[in-house]
Amino acid sequence: MVACRHHPGALVENHLAETLRGMAHPAEYVRFMPVPSSPLFPGGLNLPVPVGWNLPALLVLGLLIAPGWRDAPAFLRRALPVVLVPLVVLTMLFGVWYELRDCIEATPLIMLLVYAGIRRIWSAGLAAS
């Protein structure tokens, strides 16, 4: 805290008003933007990536998770809401609502559930052929 004593701002900032304003615009739920400039891509990339709580991206995740939900370990099915619900609530109150990095702790659970869904889709395709 000593190193930051000359910087303005509080320990925790309330972003609820900004969150509610952002959520009131339906276009924000389908927003894509090109990859910005970075050390890896100095000029950026003209490749559209979803931004924030992007409904098409969330729909794809849901469609990949749903087939394997029953086959996934009970731990994953129980852990996802336990981890994700508090993170989403805290993001809405104190975070910037369109930044999914606030919920990064749930990513391993989501990826394992996506794996279970893809495995189920793959095995159903193999059984059909």
Structural commentary:
The chain is mainly alpha-helical and 129 residues long. It has one domain. The chain has 4 helices and 2 strands, in the order αββααα. It has helices at 16-23, 55-65, 74-94, 107-128, and strands spanning 32-35, 45-50. It has a two-stranded antiparallel sheet with strand order 1-2. It is globular. The relative contact order is 0.15. The mean pLDDT is 87. Keywords: Membrane, Transmembrane, Transmembrane helix. The chain crosses the membrane at residues 47-67, 79-98.
Q: How many beta-strand runs?
A: 2
Compute the number of helices: 4
Query: How is the main sheet built?
Result: 2 strands, antiparallel
| Strand neighbour order, sheet with most strands | 1-2
- Which percent bin holds the helix content? 40-55%
Radius of gyration: 19 Å
User: Which regions have little confidence, pLDDT < 50, spanning 5+ residues?
Assistant: none
Order of helices and strands: HEEHHH
Tell me the fraction of residues in β-strands, as a range: 5-15%
Globular, elongated, flat, extended or rod-shaped: what is the shape? globular
Give the integer mean of the pLDDT values.
87
Class per helix and strand makeup: mainly alpha
- Structurally, the number of domains stands at 1
Spatial separation of the terminal alpha carbons:
62 Å
